[in-house]
Structure formats: structure tokens, C-alpha cells
Amino acid sequence: MVESPTADSPAEPDITRVNPAAEKTWFGHPRQLARMFTTEMWERFGFYGMRALLTLYLTQHFMFGDRQATGIYGGFTALVYLTPLVGGYLADQFLGSKRAVKFGAIVMSLGYLILCFGGPTAQPHAKIDGQRYEVSIEQAGDKQVRYVVDGTRKLEIKGNEDGTVDLLENGQLARKVAKGNFESDADRSPLYVMIMLIGLSMVSTGNGFFKPNISTMVGELYEVGDRRRDAGFTIFYMGINIGSLFSQILCPLLAVLFGWWAGFGLAAIGMMVSWSLIQFNGNTLAGYGEPPARPEVERQQWFIYAGALLIVPVFYFLYVNLMNSVEPEPGSGILGYIASLPIMGKFLFGTFALSVPGILIWSFLSGSRQEFQMMLAAMTLIVFNVVFWTLFEQAGSSLTLFADRNTDLSVFGLFSITAPQTQFFNAAFIVLLAPFMSILWTSLAKRGLEPSIPVKFGIALIGVAGGFLLLVWGAQFADAGFQVGIWWLAGLYFVHSFAELCISPVGLSMITKLSIARVVGLMMGVWFLSISVAQYVAGMIAQVASVETVGGQVTNLKVSLDVYVHVFTLISYWAIGLGVLLLLLSWPLKKWMHGVQ
């Protein structure tokens, strides 16, 4: 989320001018915030609607295994947050935020439309002791049962805790397959896999232009020292979640009623509404997000648009490389693990490892002592930000699969929701909590009691761990089918939503206030780079929580429940430890922030 330049200073945001919206307000904030709020709401409607479907689309339509599906998901979300690093810079130097937002919206909408063309559902098969067998899927009540077809016989597949597989005929054991000798896969069209990956590549590209620059325009609404900034970003953040709330209900519903294409199509419509709000703004955004006043800018922008489209095949290559990655050899150590990472993983970790110290060295050499300390505080918080989003972003991968497999989705016995729709809990709680959190921070600030930004970050880390531990506790009360009540999952999302409001809107505002003005756009990019790394690591953790599936379904729900409980417990303990560490560091960090709240 990058501050955009102005005519007077092409590389720096104009933070000295008189705010033209000062006399016209919207709930006490600049009136332009209403349009930014609505624009982001519709853009997030499209994005989160698509994201709610993606993991199950990969496992149930293309029938990828857990490891491959969560790897693709992690790579996609990583690119979504990596591209703002470049998109913010290009807006700063050439396009201006407004043009970047409009271009990104168009590209993302086309990406969602491309996802509508998924082709026929993949056909599952299995290899048993090296011999291939077809797999049939039959509905038994509210469950699907997988069978190995052996001539005229149909043998039900049942996975065991020790990794062996039982093949049952009429409920009786017909054959036991040793661990490692049962391999599940599916026949899927290479053409439609390619189309799907191109769609994801376009969404990643367009998001890089949209996401950082819409937030930059929000930052420009407030003058330096305006204490409304944190509250304004919190209101803006509520808009994100209003959009995601409705999309995560409606897109999965359309996918169930009409097919996957309908869910993705609705996401595309939401994205185009977002574009129209900026394109047809009635001149209310004049002076905001404008390109630098250089004569060559008009010509350069077309090269940028063309270059962005040429990045799409590059991203496609990265996805293919990600899909073909292999696990490191046992005992190969950290070097073997790094060597086994796909190109995307090496690039992400390498870029982040170079960016953080590189910018700090530049700040030390080019800035004042106070500026360097403020940048050091910002970078420290950015590193801890990686941990938070690594855990929080299990929502679209392992938590969605947990909802599909180990959650009773009945609501008071009256009706049931789908697994993708469980993601709406987070958005609903954000909408409910955001106004109270905004009032809370403002009220505490007036009394001089508002927690510092590092303390808020520490609370967020402990909170996200608390949400997972709540679900782990609920797993003790799983029913005979190894499913927990939906309200335990809702409780996790409630705690996670509170934690999210402690870090995300505060983090966006923090970057605009702590960064040296002439690199605030780059710092917004690094903020999103940290989230990108977190998304990739989140995919890796989801892979650790992978469970063997046949045709997209687990054949033993006790195995999957045990795996999820183990992984969620382990990452919670790490988050609590790092959260406590950050609370201990909050005093020196607050000192380095030199009064920034």
C-alpha cells in the first residue's frame, strides 16, 4: 500500500498540502473515505469470494492431493502479496495510484472470468502395488464413498491410522494394502489446468496494481499528525470485510447451485463494480493518486501495462514449477531443504532477506538518527508480522479442509452451510468488532492509555494462538464421526478477528507514519512482501497438515482430526512464545518510534 507521488515531487507523497476535504466529512472523516471504502469493499468481494472456493476447487474439481492443492494456494496468495512491492513503486514513479487501481481491477476481473472455464471434473484413480485401478464415487446419505473398481467388484477404501489401507467388500476386509503401496491420483485435462493457472496468474498481477495503491489513497486523505488516521484505516478495513462477508456466503452458494463457474463469475462482477467506482468518480478524487507531472509519463504508462501482461506467463511458469516441486530427501538438513524449494520459495525468502537489511542500511546512511530508529522499529514489526499472517492465513487452506472434513456444519439442526462459507465468520466478526475497536482505540488515546503499536502486535500474536487452542480444546468433544461442532470453528474465527484488528489496520497506518517520506511507497511494498512470505509459509504449514485423500476426500476422519490437532497445537505454542517476546521488546521499540502512535 504505497503513497503516490504528486506533481511537485514525483518520488514522494504530498503530505504538506491543505486537505481539500477538511470541511466535508463522512462520519467525522474526509468524505472521499466513503468512496475508498466502497471501492475496496467490492474488490474484496471478488477476491475473497474466489479465495473461499479455491482450495476445494483444487481438491474436489481438479482432485489434487492436499499437498499439491495447499502448495498452489500458498503460492497464489504469496504472489498476491508480493506483486504490490512492484505495483506500488510503479504507481509512485509513473502511473499514479488512481490509474494503477483501475488497471489492476480490469486484469483481476479477467482472471476471475478465466477461472470460470474449469472443464470437466477430474477422474480419480489409484495405483495399488503398482497396478492402476479406477475409482468410483457414490453418494451414501450425506457422505461420499470411494470405491476401487476391480473388475466387477467394488471395494470400499478405508485408510488406517498406521498408513495402511483396507479395501472392504460388503463391510468385510477383502484386502489390506501396506503403507506406501496405495497411491491416489486423478486424470485431469492439461488444457484446463493451464487455463486455471493463467487465471490465477492474472489475479496475482492485477492485485499488485490495485491493493497497495487504494490504501495509499486512503493515507493521502489525512494530514501529518491527524489522530483520525488509525480510526480511518479501521473503518476502511471494515469495508474489506463487508465485501468478503457477502462474497463468502454468495460465491460458494452459487458454486453449489450452478457449478464452480457461477461462483467465480460473481467474483468477476464484484471486481468490475469496484473498477467503475474509481473510473466514474464524479471528480471527487481529483488531486488524489495523480501521476507525476512529467511529459514522458503518458508514453511510459503503456509500456508498463504491456510489461504487466507479459508477467502473466512468468507467473504461470512459477506455478508449474511449484506443482512439480518434490519433498527434500530425509536427513538432507537445512541446505537440502532450501535446495528443494521451488523457484518461488527461493525468490520470496531471498528477496525478503535482502530487502530488510538493505533498506535499514540505506536508512542509516541517508537518514537522520531518528529516521533510522523509526525505520528499525518498522522493520522489527514487519518481521513479527510474518509470524501472525503465517498462522492467520490457515483460513483458506487447512482450516477450510478442516471445516470440510472434521466439522459438523449443521447450524442448530435447522440447516447446514458449506465448508467455504465458514470463512464468512471472520468477515462477520470483523464487521461487528471494527466499530467497537475504533471507538476503543480513540477512547484510550484520549486518556493516554492506548497500547503502543508493538503491544498491539504482541496481543495479536497471542490471540491467533488462542484461537487455534480453542479449536484444539473443542476437538476433545468431537462426535462419533470425528467431527466437532461448528461453533468451535466460529469461536476460533472470533478470536482471530479480534487479533486481526489489533495488527492489520494498525500496521497499514504504522508504515505510513514510521517510514521516511521518500520511500514510503517502497516500505508499503515491503509490508506486503512480509505478508507474501507469510502466505507462502502458511502453505507450507498447511502441507504439514496434509492428509492422504482419494478423489479429494479423506478415507479416515480420525486420522485427519489427529493431524490437524497436532499441527494447530504446535504452531500455537510458537506464536505464544514469539508474542511474549514482542511484548518484552515493546519498550525499546516504542522509544525508537519517537512518539508515533
TrEMBL record:
It is found in: Membrane. It is a multi-pass membrane protein. It holds the Pfam family PTR2. Its main location: membrane. The keyword Iron does not apply. Keywords: Membrane, Peptide transport, Protein transport, Transmembrane, Transmembrane helix, Transport. InterPro entries: Dipep/tripep_permease (IPR005279), MFS_trans_sf (IPR036259), POT_fam (IPR000109), PTR2_symporter_CS (IPR018456). The keyword 4Fe-4S does not apply. The chain crosses the membrane at residues 45-64, 70-91, 103-122, 191-210, 231-255, 261-281, 302-322, 334-362, 374-392, 424-445, 457-474, 486-508, 520-543, 563-585. It comes from the Bacteria. PANTHER family: OLIGOPEPTIDE TRANSPORTER-RELATED. Belongs to the major facilitator superfamily. Proton-dependent oligopeptide transporter (POT/PTR) (TC 2.A.17) family. This is Peptide MFS transporter. It comes from Sphingomonas agrestis.
